């Protein structure tokens, strides 16, 4: 058996099992991250309510789900819950597990982004007569979003990689699809190289999208290091 | 001393307003009144309570005791037989609509253009349609001399320009009274004048206003009355020509003399331009 077989490599590249695994990885990442953002934002908003119980809930939630490994959470949901009479399908356990394990990170990002917007912005909005919900939606949220996007982009990359964990509960995503293939032909190097390329490709496309979004979202904000005080028109003319 | 100047029929009335921060007492029983259409200058050293007083009137701070009234309405809370009861967020928001506030640090919304900043109140608070808010916003920007900056973001504007947008933003809500919290203290000396000119124009429309400022020449020219505060007390108040030119109290005299000394050579003209 030769060290590297190009034909196996190219076959793997377009292998339907691998491509369908790639698709599973992508939708699983997007879906669970979207759910984690909703759940995390909700938890963060509850945590902002200035009350002993809500703050305690927030601290406890973040501590619990951040302190336990996502792999353990997944196996717990799929294999331990049935003992209590709760049976989740592989897909259900995968979605819930990846959502829960990611949510405390999102909650922390949302919490810190919201509190990074200066208090003076709240005061200026209140002074005009805006109500709290209006202030949050139109004044605080857009500014917090700009702060939250780079770390949330990191979470996408992390989540994409974490989807490989659901292979343990037998969900056929990119890694398990690749691994299955090697059981048949024992060409592990070519198979995992293909998986690596697809993971790399997905994160690269994401990074490009995120950069474009950040540029658009930051029109109004001076980039670090090139703070402008002059009107743009003058800068352009110079 | 100040009792004679308290007028129960005045437009803005503060009676025995006390504000604590923990054990620190920022306002130690302040009573004053402002008539409709009057401009009142609030002077005094840093930490004397000028900003706190303005923030209490706009309910950004909750007063510990006393009453504040604008027109016939008690601001921030209602005093009943059983004590003070804080207004709901909804009522506070409605009351603030009538009380315009301009901050030392401008506090424009950085993600909105100058025009969007000015129309934010009419659109987000009053629910005015974009076209109407836009038209009025442009009028206000022209009024403060920034008609050509409608599409600029705050970071593209100088401090003086930002403050003028902030004034237009407050005026867009058609407030009954305007509060200026050291509006020129954060500005470069060369942009101070443009902001003072705008404030003077607002004053000329008959707006009732309360201005905390260190610009004594400006205060002398623009205000009808002046209030000198120190350490949370009103030390002296009266007509500007008296308080700002020949104050009764030794403390106010020393304060004004100190200021004159420090700004000698940097005199600016208050002549209308």
From TrEMBL, chain A:
One of its GO terms (cellular component) is ATP-binding cassette (ABC) transporter complex. Residues 22-210 form the ABC transmembrane type-1 domain. It is a multi-pass membrane protein. The chain crosses the membrane at residues 20-46, 191-209. GO terms for molecular function: transmembrane transporter activity. This is Amino acid ABC transporter permease. Belongs to the binding-protein-dependent transport system permease family. HisMQ subfamily. PROSITE patterns: ABC_TM1 (PS50928). PANTHER family: L-CYSTINE TRANSPORT SYSTEM PERMEASE PROTEIN TCYL, MEMBRANE COMPONENT OF AMINO ACID ABC TRANSPORTER. Keywords: Amino-acid transport, Cell membrane, Membrane, Transmembrane, Transmembrane helix, Transport. It is found in: Cell inner membrane; Cell membrane. One of its GO terms (biological process) is amino acid transport. It comes from Mesorhizobium waimense. It holds the Pfam family BPD_transp_1.
From TrEMBL, chain B:
SUPFAM superfamilies: P-loop containing nucleoside triphosphate hydrolases. Keywords: Amino-acid transport, ATP-binding, Cell membrane, Membrane, Nucleotide-binding, Transport. The keyword Magnesium does not apply. Pfam families: ABC_tran (PF00005). The keyword Cell membrane applies. GO terms for cellular component: plasma membrane. Residues 12-256 form the ABC transporter domain. It comes from the Bacteria. Gene3D superfamilies: P-loop containing nucleotide triphosphate hydrolases (3.40.50.300). This is Amino acid ABC transporter ATP-binding protein. The lineage of its organism: Bacteria, Pseudomonadati, Pseudomonadota, Alphaproteobacteria, Hyphomicrobiales.
